[in-house]
Amino acid sequence: MNSSIFEWLQLIAGNAWLYGGAFVLVLSILVFVHEWGHYIVARMCGVRIEAFSIGFGKEMFGFTDKNGTRWKFAMIPLGGYVKMFGDADPASASHVSDVKDKDSEEIRPLTKKEKEGAFFAKPVGQRSAIVLAGPAINFIFAIILLAGLYFFHGQSVTPPVASAIIGGSAAEKAGFQPHDEIVAIDNTKVQRFEDIRREVLVGLDTERKFKIKRDGEVIELIASPERLINEDRFGFKHARGLLGLISPGNAIEISFIKEIDGRKYDDPVALHKAIVDRLGTTFKIALDRGSEIDEIIVQPLADFNEALYDAESVEYGFLDVSDREDEIFVKHGLVASIAEAADETSHITLSTLKALGQMVSGTRSATELGGIIRIGAIAGDMAQAGIFALITFTALLSINLGLINLFPIPMLDGGHLFFYLIEAAKGSPLSEQIQEYAFRLGLAILVGIMVFANLNDIIQVIL
User: Fold this and answer.
1) Which residues neighbour 367 within 8 Å (Cβ) at sequence distance 6 or greater?
2) What's the number of domains the chain is made of?
3) Residues whose CB is less than 8 angstroms from the CB of residue 191 and which lie 6 or more positions away in sequence, other chains included
4) 195 band by pLDDT with thresholds 50, 70 and 90
5) Which of 35, 226, 340, 344 does the annotation list as catalytic?
6) What is the domain range of residue 309?
7) What is the distance in angstroms between the CA of the first residue and the CA of the last residue of the chain?
8) Is 300 exposed, middle or buried (0-12, 13-18, 19+ CB in 10 A)?
C-alpha cells in the first residue's frame, strides 16, 4: 500500500478543519458566485426566484426575503442551485403549467401574471442570457480576484531568461545556453518566464519552435520537452513537459558542488578557487542532491558574484548564476491589473482546454482527472501556503467551474444553451420527451464522470 494513504490520514486527523474548511469555503464561494450570476440576470429579466440554495439535501438554515425567495444552506455542500418559478426542478429540465392555490390548496392553471414571472415563458434570448450568466460570472470573478492580487500584492514577473541549463535535458540537446532570452514559442510572444513554464507544462513532449535572443542576435531552436510523470505527496500523478531551463533569481550553495566539467573536488578551497577562475565562462557543475546527482550548465558572471572574493561576506558560500533581484512582484495600476488578469484567465482557459483535449486523444492520461479528494487536498495546501496562494487557487477553480459548465452536456448550462440554440434556429423548442431523454443521458454522463474522477483520487492515494 502506498505510504501516501498514511500521510493523507495524518493530514485529515491533524488538519481536518484546515483542509475541510478550506475546501468547503472555496467551493461555497464559487457556487454562490455561479448561482448569483443566474439569479441576478433572472431578476433583471423579471423571473421570480423561489429558492437560492448553497448545497443539496435538507436545509440547515436560511431565510426568506421580501420577494419570496428562500435563501438557504443545505446539508451537502457540493454544489447549489437557483430554483426559478415555473420549473419542475432546480435543473430547469422541465416546467409546470399549473400551481397549488395558497388559499384553496387546489391545483389551478398559472395566471397570465404568474406566467410573466416564469422562466420557461421568457423569450429564448432571455433564457439564454440567464443560463450563460452563471459560467460568465465565474470568469469575471476570477479576473476580479487576480486583478486584486496584481493591484494590491503584485504579479510575479520573471524575465524570460535562462539563468542555467539542466544537463542532459531537452534544452541542452537543442542548443540552449545560459542567459538566452526566449522571445517567442511557436510564434506566441513570451513576456515572462511563467509564460515559458506554462507552454512547456501543457505541451508535454510536443516539438516546439523557440525564438531566442543571444548576444544581440535572434536565432531559432527546435526542442521537444521531455514528458515527466510527477507524483505529489498524496500520490496524485500528473504529466508535465520539462524543457530544462532554470529561471532567474537562483543561487547555488557551493558546498553542494562536487564536480566541475567532470573533475571532482574534495577540497573546499580548491573548489572555491576553481569557480572564481571560471567566472564569465560556461561550464558544467554536478550537484549532490542526496539521492541523486544533478548536472547544470552555468555561466556565472563576475558582476553577480563579488561576494566570492570576500570570505567575510554572508554570500561567500553561494554562487549566483543570475541576478537574484530578477524575480520580483510588480504592482500594476487598476486598468493594467484588469488587463493582466483577463490575459491570465484566457491563458488558463486555453491551457485547460488543451489538457482536456489531450485526455480525449490519449496523449495525457485520464487518471489526471481529479475529484473531491484532490480538490480538497489542493485547497488545504493552498490555505497552508497563505492567503495569496488560496486566492490564486480560488480564481483557477472558478475558471474551471465556468468552463466545465459551458460544455454542451444536458444538465449543464452548456447543454441548456445548446437546446436554446436549436430552438432559436427552428423557431420552436425541442419536444419535452426528447429533452427529458437528453437530460437523463446528461445526468448519466455527469454521474459517470464524477464516479470516475473520485475513484481516480481514491486509487492513487491507496495504491
Assistant:
1) 237, 456, 459, 460
2) 2
3) 160
4) confident
5) 35
6) 251-321
7) 5
8) buried
Distance CA 108, CA 100 (A): 6
- State the Rg of the chain over Cα: 28
Query: From CA 15, how far away is CA 234, in angstroms rounded?
Result: 14
Question: Is residue 95 a part of any domain in this protein?
Answer: no
Q: Where are the strands (E) in 32-69, listed by range?
A: 49-64
Note the pLDDT tens digit of each residue in 393-406.
899 899 999 999 99
The SS3 of residue 259 is strand
**Main-chain phi, psi angles of 32, to 5 degrees:** -60, -45
Which range has the worst mean pLDDT, 101-110, 188-197, 353-362? 101-110
Q: Is 402 among the domain residues?
A: yes
Instruction: Answer yes or no: is 221 within a domain.
Output: no
* Statement to judge: residues 381 and 313 lie in one domain: no
The answer to whether the CB of 139 falls within 8 A of the CB of 296 is no
Q: Please give the helix or strand (H or E) that residue 28 lies within, else none.
A: helix 16-44
- List C-alpha distances in Å: 361 to 126, 199, 414: 36, 19, 22
Distance separating alpha carbons of residues 137 and 178, to the nearest angstrom: 43
299 and 416, same domain (yes or no): no
292 catalytic residue (yes or no): no
Q: Would you state the cell numbers that stand for residue 258, as one nine-digit string?
A: 562536487
